[in-house]
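Standup notes
- DV: blocked on the single-chain target, sequence here:
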Amino acid sequence: MNSPRIVIAGGGAAGFFGAISAAESNPLAQVVLLEKSPHLLSKVRISGGGRCNVTHACFDPRELSTRYPRGGRALIGPLNRFGPTQTIEWFQSRGVKLKTESDGRMFPVTDSSQTIIDCLTQASQKAKVRILTGHGVQSIQRSPEGGFTLSLGSGSTMESDRFLWAGGGCRPDSQPCTALGHTLSTPVPSLFTFHISLPWLNELAGLSIDSAQVSVPGTDLRESGPLLITHAGLSGPAILRLSAWGARPLHSFNYHFPLLVNWLPHRSADELFREIQERRETIGAQMVLRSRWSPLPSRLWEKLALQAGITPEDRWSKLSRESATSLIHILNSTQLHVTGKSMNKEEFVTCGGIPLKEIDTKTMESRLVPGLYFAGEALDIDGITGGYNFQSAWTTGWIAGQSMATS
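- DV (later): unblocked, structure below
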């Protein structure tokens, strides 16, 4: 083996995995990991509410690829080489056991992201990766010898035979590789919550619904799953998935658009009407607002019934057909108006990056510039919530590291 000088820019999941993979594959290589901020693995620390959603228990690469609104098809091959099975084995071989939750998300059994951070840090130290914080790459040029000359934020320069960009870098002013001929897919946010300024809804902040369906009229965007009402609007898996698949169209709407919520997606309008009839006959004397509609929480049921025009004095036996129709419409199709967005807690995923047509996904090497590699958020790949973004980071980082070490 030769002893190349390999430099990785980006101290996140993909950067660390690329550095460790390269150093372990070629012990003779000089591997340097650069991070422009003082903090390493910051997204790992905050992900999954501080527990770190490492991957997802979906072991068929083709099925797994469908969880990526952008880049999924190109990931099928890479996921066959290094997917969730290999990720689990990688961490387990280094003393970290993962557990699977009911929805398929996988976390360390410690329920602490620090476990993952410690594992990556120790693996990089053992592999003799040199880590430099406060060293951002400002520009990159081809050196006469065929490698690269990196200009760093500190004012110094560094030579590299092979270079991996694993930083976010979705803005033209933060992506130095565009100077070498690469382009960028327009970056827009993905995985965000919805702002809805509606007093009756905002008063229910903290309430969760196990299953609801949300859709955007005039588009094909539709998702089902748990919903969380927040002080600012709506969040939860259904909203986050909708924001991921709709990243570009919702951006084009400037995040102002109508949203339809079906609070009882498993019941048709006819079924709801029959249940109203049954309630008229069996609990006709009861007040409508005081007899909730399972599985809706009582407070939500009351607010929805009020929005349908039902008064606190209305009883089931006296409920008019017009009121019943209005109630069914509200339960099946409440229209809300989204007026903005917030990122999901402190997690931030961007749709955009280096187009995959410019990358050889077998190696993660640039098709335009030999010796230049990309991984993680640098690529135009992003997944829905549930561990998919970390999996693409592990996958692309591992492949890039292997390729740089042995090319």
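- Follow-up: The two ends are 10 Å apart (CA to CA).
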